[in-house]
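Let us walk through a complete example step by step. Step one is to write down the protein sequence. Step two is to encode the small molecule, adenosine-5'-diphosphate, as a SMILES string so that its atoms and bonds are unambiguous. Step three, shown after the inputs, is the structure prediction itself.
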Amino acid sequence: MQETLALPDYLDLSPDLVKRFRTIESRETILRIEHLRKDFVGRNGDGAGMPPVLGDISFEVKRREFICVIGASGCGKSTMLRILGGLEPRTGGDVRMNGHSVSGPGADRGMVFQEYTLFPWLTVKKNVMFGPRMSGHGKDASEAEALQWLDMVGLSERADAYPHQLSGGMKQRVAIARALANYPAILLMDEPFGALDAQTRCQMQRHLLQIWKNVDVTVLFVTHDLDEAILLADRIVVLGARPGRILEIIKVPVDRPRHQGQLLSPHFLAIKKRLEQLIHPDDSEALKDLPLMRMTQVGDEAED
Ligand SMILES: Nc1ncnc2c1ncn2[C@@H]1O[C@H](COP(=O)(O)OP(=O)(O)O)[C@@H](O)[C@H]1O
Ligand SMILES: [Mg+2]
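Step three: the predicted structure of the complex.
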């Protein structure tokens, strides 16, 4: 697979970033996706003969790497994440987690979805205790574990609240704590901030970067928001649709620590432009074909 930086000639990578990419490359691979394919064929054969939802997807994720997967709506991002999580069977290829072929859900993969998935009848603390309890830890040990993770996401004071008493951003922080309480090797996140307002979303991005820095975890994060992908990722896997396939894997040349102040930096904008070209290649052509309906008089046009 072609890996690019897609930087104009006049932009250079900082020495820190060159070093960081070398360090990442030297780490072990924890997730290996090989020729992954997914066809959806219904019981009565619908979908047969259609292009696969995921064609032939191969890439690797290194330990402690932050990978974002972007692509237009419907290109198979959620399907891919559900397959990696073991929630959906694949039709072809292989998914290997630390060398073992994935055949179902496992504690080594923590999932966070866009929809709020906390158990509404349990308190925040009990939601986070759920994983440790299921894996056989005693009540006191699970409670201590839960409180530690709630502290990590800055919510220890809300331990006894119920999910409906929390804001959307807080619910997602609890969902992250709940996933981390199982000590996953990788967090699989499917547009986790997609339902939040813009300001909360920015806060959550900063928060996630801090958690990722403090915890030894790898992240695979699906989003359709270009700024979000550039702000978070070491590498961005760009998917195209029908069949879902990798268009390009891009190393993000923006220094860490990242912050929203970098959104207008030349490196950020160069990558954003490249992503736009890949994801919306012929938008302006399609827009030209929209029907024209005049409600103004000739000479009043908003633009020529
Ligand atoms: N259970 C299913 N049965 C049939 N088709 C599905 C199913 N789930 C998803 N699809 C189809 O797979 C494609 C990719 O969906 P999805 O993975 O949700 O895309 P994305 O998350 O990128 O928006 C869509 O065309 C969707 O209609
Ligand atoms: Mg989706």
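Step four is interpretation. The pocket of magnesium ion (ligand 2) is lined by residues 77-78 (CB under 6 Å).
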